[in-house]
Amino acid sequence: MATVSAAHRPADGGPLEPLTVPHFAAFCSRLTLPPKAKAERRRGEPRATRPAPQPLLIEPFQKTIVTPMFDGVAETFVVLPKGNAKSMLSAALALYHLCFVDEAEVFVLAASMGQARRLLNMAAGIVRRSPVLRRHLDLKLGSFEIRAKRDGGYLKVLSSDPDTVDGIGPTLCICDELHRWPTLEAYVLAKEGLDKRGGQIIAISTAGEDENSAFGRMRKTALEHLQVRDGAFKYAPAPSGEFVWLEWSLDPADDLTDFELVKTANPLKQITVESLRARYESPGTRLAWWARFVCGIWTRDDEAAISAMLWAPCQVDHCRIPDGAEDVVIGVDFGWRRDTTALVPVWGLHDDPLTVRVDERLKILTPPGEGKSLSTDEVWAEIRTLSAIWPKATFVIDPNAEGEHVGQRIENELRHKVVLQAQDPSPMADAASLVMELVRERRIDHPGHLEYSSHVLAAYLKSVGASKQRFVKKTDTASPIDALIATAQAVRRLKVVADDPGPVRPFVINR
User: What kind of fold does domain 82-206 have according to CATH?
Assistant: First the structure.
């Protein structure tokens, strides 16, 4: 397999150089895609008719994906909507590497063994349909491997469990659907093993649901090097040349019913504007699913209280409240061991209709874990910092979780007005309704703070009585929403003051 066949020769008769994009494309052109017998029968073909094999032709966007790897880049990240043949490209790339790299050690890592086996079965299907590959490769699916007969090189699939990945030294590691990995520890271990053989990693994924996840933060860091943006396509190479980030995605503020625009995020030729329209108009299509898996937008499911499509247009660069501004309200939600402590400054830009701004200097403090509590001194230091910026701010605090004690200290030592607002269902439902109204009508400016937005987008709604709903976490172990709760408390206070400038006596300490 290391020799170049006539099918791999260019028009001028010279050989194509192995381990290059043209050579890989020629290799793939001799392979065939799985048959689509059911589709043929729907078009009126007899049941016994077998459709003609379709060659695996590498499209221009797929050449863009593999080019960094063939150029020697150590890490290539690709984020692409579902249905754009990511798995087939990964399988073909793994087999090519196995055939043309001496004593190759190819590892395919996925979130689960079920997902990993799916890609292995796809690669095995390519081998079964290719007489040439069958002569050179052994399928050992019982041990989740494909072996090269000539030198013992192998392709092996593993889950993203760090215990299974520790110690590997891949020549190529393909990481499948990183957005589903619970942690990126396995990725780090695989990366550390690259030096053993001068290996490379290519990670191919769809968009995730939480931009504050490990993969989401990795994406944010990578896109700081954005060099090319052409429609939905984004190209971000590291200045060092260590990695390249390739992404096809729309922005949450885009018109997701502009099917010509959505097509730019789906470069596979067989995906057409007409097929996209048909998918969108299907009664089973949900907006969040469409946004994430077809448009490449990071968002949670349709049950989330606030979607990324609504939240993103409210983002404002350099989102700050003027230092020393009056009528600033700082919502505080305490979480000492399990949840986070959030301090969110909010300011009313207008009273009628109420329009607010969230300051980018908001604070979210995370407990150290392992049952240890967040330091009171750390929380107090942040309170003092915000107090110095807005000396006349009002703090709105839940009296529970030591809130009343902290509130008294704020009044006594910093001389701020403190409003104790218990997180009872009815007032919090009113606060949630107000926040959602502000977001829907784009009457809230926020800084796009990654962790803050994660808190906002993680919230779900729970019914309170017959007609009201409040913000809650989906499960006790789900992503925190404390910053959203703090925002809701502050916004509710702004609304109360706008409607009635007098003090809210029942909740004010010592006033």
Answer: Rossmann fold (3.40.50)
Q: Are 444 and 438 in contact (CB under 8 A)?
A: yes
Tokens matching residue 297: 């937008």
- State the CB neighbour count (10 A cutoff) for residue 251: 14
Tokens of 511: 């006033």
Q: How far apart are CA 360 and CA 487, in angstroms?
A: 13
Q: Which residues contact 1 (CB under 8 A, 6 or more apart)?
A: 99, 100, 132, 136, 148, 150
User: What are the residues whose beta carbons fall under 8 Å from the beta carbon of 277, sequence distance 6 or more?
Assistant: 259
pLDDT above 60 (res 497): yes
For 215-237, the pLDDT digits (tens) are: 999 999 999 999 999 999 999 99
- 256 burial type by CB count under 10 A (0-12 exposed, 13-18 middle, 19+ buried): buried
Tens of pLDDT, residues 147-181? 999 999 999 999 888 888 988 999 999 999 999 99
CA-wise closest residue to 153 among 93, 91, 90, 101: 101
- Domain extent listing, the chain: 82-206, 314-507
Dihedral of the alpha carbons of 175, 176, 177, 182, in degrees to the nearest 10 = -60
Cβ 407 vs Cβ 395: under 8 Å: yes
Q: How many residues does the chain have?
A: 511
Report whether CATH 2.10.260.10 matches the domain 314-507. no
Q: Is the dihedral of CA 309, 314, 316, 319 positive or negative?
A: negative
**Torsion of the alpha carbons at 350, 354, 358 and 363, rounded to the nearest 10:** 130
Query: E-assigned strands of 238-340?
Result: 243-248, 328-333
